[in-house]
Amino acid sequence: MTDKPASAPIPTNFGELASGYPPKLPRKLQLLLPLKGHIEGLLAKRASYDDIRTLLKEANVIVSKNTVYRFCREVIGHRPAPQAATEINETPKITPVLPPPAAAQTTIEAALQERRERLPGLWGRRKRGPRIANSKNL
Predict the structure, then answer these.
(1) Phi and psi at residue 60, in whole multiples of 5°?
(2) Are residues 75 and 25 in contact, defined by beta-carbon separation less than 8 angstroms?
(3) If you write DSSP's letter for every residue of the chain in order, what string do you get?
(4) How far apart are the C-alpha atoms of 37 and 41, rounded to whole Å?
(5) Are residues 77 and 42 in contact, defined by beta-carbon separation less than 8 angstroms?
(6) What residue segments make up the domains of the chain, in order of their start?
(7) What pLDDT sits at residue 47?
(8) Would you tell me the crossing angle of helices 49-58 and 36-44 to the nearest 10 degrees?
(9) How do the pLDDT tens digits run along the chain, 138 residues long?
(10) CB of 76 within 8 A of CB of 43?
């Protein structure tokens, strides 16, 4: 048995230990942690995540573009630059679609009606209900 009393004193420097505790990161993000300063410099030069991934690959650090993106977002706190202000503030130009003139519409309807009368079987309304085959045609 141990000689420790049941109520051992709680360390007073727990706050210091807790503040000095490094955050746990996934293995791939820990791999990029020593290169944090260099990646920040590349982001300041407006390098894309794929360009950073390519440079890391040349340095024998194989990670995906998504891993670089997550590292920049979670560890560095980088937010992508917004799109150009002209694209954001520009209002879309709406052109109204006008219906065709009444005379043209009636001629189109008349032509369709004439076609339906000539070939009634194909464009006629189907009877409601199930489609049952005619036994005489089988």
Answers:
(1) 65, 35
(2) yes
(3) -----SSPPPPTTHHHHHHTPPPP--HHHHHHGGGHHHHHHHHHTT--HHHHHHHHHHTT----HHHHHHHIIIII---PPPPPHHHHHPPPP----PPPPHHHHHHHHHHHHHHHHHSHHHHSPPPSS-----GGG-
(4) 6
(5) no
(6) 22-81
(7) 87
(8) 140
(9) 555 555 555 666 777 777 777 767 777 777 888 888 888 888 888 888 899 889 888 888 888 888 888 888 888 877 766 666 555 556 667 777 666 666 666 788 888 888 777 765 655 566 677 878 888 887
(10) yes
Integer Cα distance of 11 and 17 in angstroms: 10
- Could you tell me how far CA 52 lies from the centroid of its own chain? 21
Here the tokens at position 132 are: 């049952």
